[in-house]
Amino acid sequence: MGFDRNFTLGLLWRLALLQLLLVLFAWAVVTPGLGAVRIAAAALAAGAGWLLWRHVYRTNLEVAQFVEALEHGDTQVHFDRGAGSGFGRIGAAFEGAIRRLREERRAAGDERNFLEALVNDVPVALLTVTGEGRIELANKAARRLFTEHDGVRAQDFAVYGATFANRLELDAPVREEVLILNLGGRAKRAIVRSAALTRLGERARVVIVQPVQETLNAVEMAAQTDLVRVLTHEILNSLTPVTSLAATANTLLAQVDDLAADGGRIADARLAVSTLERRAEGLARFINSYRKVASEPRIDRRRFEAAPFAAEMARLFAAEFPGVALDVTLRPEGFLVDADPDLMAQALLNLLRNAAEAAAAHAPAPRVALTLARMANGETLVAVEDNGPGVPADLRRDIFLPFFTTRAKGTGVGLNLVRQIAVAHGGAVEVKDAEAGGARFELLV
Questions:
Q1: 211 preceded by cis ω (within 30°)?
Q2: Sign of the C-alpha dihedral, residues 410, 413, 416, 422?
Q3: Which of 15, 85, 164, 394 is the most buried if burial means most Cβ atoms within 10 Å?
Q4: Are 186 and 164 in contact (CB under 8 A)?
Q5: Phi-psi region of 278 (alpha: psi -120 to 50; beta: other; left: phi over 0)
Q6: Around 186, how many Cα atoms within 13 Å sit in the side-chain half-sphere?
Q7: How far apart are CA 81 and CA 7, in angstroms?
Q8: In this model, does residue 1 exceed pLDDT 50?
Q9: What is the share, in percent, of the chain residues with pLDDT greater than 90?
Q10: Where are the transmembrane segments (predicted)?
């Protein structure tokens, strides 16, 4: 990489001028009586030296300014290669390098924007933990999911669960597990994955949270539905011919009543067959009543006033359980419920009936409380609690299974239907301890 022609010519004539003036100055020094010439020659030699220094410094200044601009991240800078500038070939190389750098930076920026958009819109929640222990919600899903805390430290996330908060610590073990988180006022299972990373030379951590409670509910309900459908189909296939044959046998036996010699035996046979027919018909009705467990509720969601709905439930309750007191609370007064009113009524009547029967069998002054409240996130909370014996902790998940019951006359269908209706609305149902010591069922839709 040599100098360009203009720079070389400029350098040569400045050097020649400086040498000539230095010779003139030396001649004036050795020649007596030329003091003025000596001073003028010294001044001119100094000026020629300055011109030479300025000519060389100009190129150095251009290179320094170019490199300084790059140091500050300015990729729009150009290397000045005007007339008289040095380093022509290196200037062209600089221009090519900066052009390639500009293109690579543009491509890197596009890729970064794509990755940022991808992370921001990914449907699972991403949280990052920096080396200082600061927790950041890295995408939209995380900002929608975690709305109840205040702070950026792991302990601030304890509102969602102490175990989850521990997993957000920088030194927590890297693992994948299913945790129960308190999200939106209800307990939900979520898959929590974590990984250790390095960020700007410091240790960091990323935590992925994927709620799966709704998926698990749907899968469980589908499995239960398939099981019940298969069982009812096979049992009914077996009962249909039994019922038909029993009816036919009973008819034939009725036609031979005139056989007096065998009348007693025929009467016994007819009684046995008639009993078989009745029991078979009763079993068929019993199984048909369970078919509704295998039918997924169809939601006709609309907005309706909570107050008239609660008043109607109270009237139906009073007609069926006149000896059980019912307290009704609305928060706030006059709000609207967004749900299927018929299915909600069916679910609520099941909960009220169970509460009344539990309270009446346990307390001398049975009481049931019904609460309808609008939550901060727009969901509706329907709570039914009683002063009965409550539900033991080890049975609280089983009571929602089909056909599971702790009552002698129970069918085990009502609470399963309540759960189906809640899941069909995108909600959930849970059982807790009531303040009065009984059970509290909370239905969120």
A1: no
A2: negative
A3: 164
A4: no
A5: alpha
A6: 25
A7: 11
A8: no
A9: 16
A10: 12-30, 36-53
Where does residue 340 rank: exposed (0-12), middle (13-18), buried (19+ CB within 10 A)?
buried
Label residues 18-50 b or e (16+ Cβ within 10 Å = b).
beebbebbeebeeeeeeeeebeebbebbeebee
β-pair type (302-305, 186-199): unpaired
pLDDT tens column, 263-291: 555 666 666 666 666 666 656 665 665 56
Q: What pLDDT, on a 0 to 100 scale, did the predictor assign at position 197?
A: 86
Q: The tokens of 36 are what?
A: 């003025």
Ordered DSSP codes for 236-250: HHHHHHHHHHHHHHH
Q: Which of 399, 412, 380 is nearest to 439 (CA)?
A: 399
Those residues whose C-beta lies under 8 Å from the C-beta of residue 149, and which sit 6 or more positions away, are: 156, 157, 159, 160
The phi, psi pair for 153, rounded to 5°, reads: -105, 160
How far, in Å, CA of 166 to CA of 157, rounded?
9
Would you call 389 helix, strand, or coil by DSSP?
A: coil
Q: What share of the chain is helix, strand, coil (3-state, %, to 5)?
A: 55, 20, 25
Task: Record the tokens describing residue 237, joined without a space.
Answer: 């296939």
Tokens of 391: 């539900």
Q: How far apart are CA 220 and CA 124, in angstroms?
A: 22
- The order of strands in the sheet holding 439-444 is 325-331, 367-374, 380-386, 439-444, 428-433
- For 114-128, the pLDDT digits (tens) are 888 888 888 899 999
Question: What H or E segment, with its residue span, contains residue 225?
Answer: helix 213-254
Interval 340-358: pLDDT, tens: 888 888 889 889 988 998 8
Span 161-188, average pLDDT: 86
Q: Distance between CA 183 and CA 234 in Å, rounded?
A: 41
Q: What is the DSSP letter of 291?
A: G
Beta strand 202-211 pairing with 176-183: unpaired
Helices 35-71 + 5-30 axis angle, to 10:
150
CA distance 14 to 48: 7
Cβ atoms of 224 and 293 within 8 Å: the answer is yes
For residue 367, the one-letter residue type is R
Region 388-399: what's the mean pLDDT?
A: 80
Statement: residue 59 has pLDDT above 80: no
| DSSP class of 195 | E
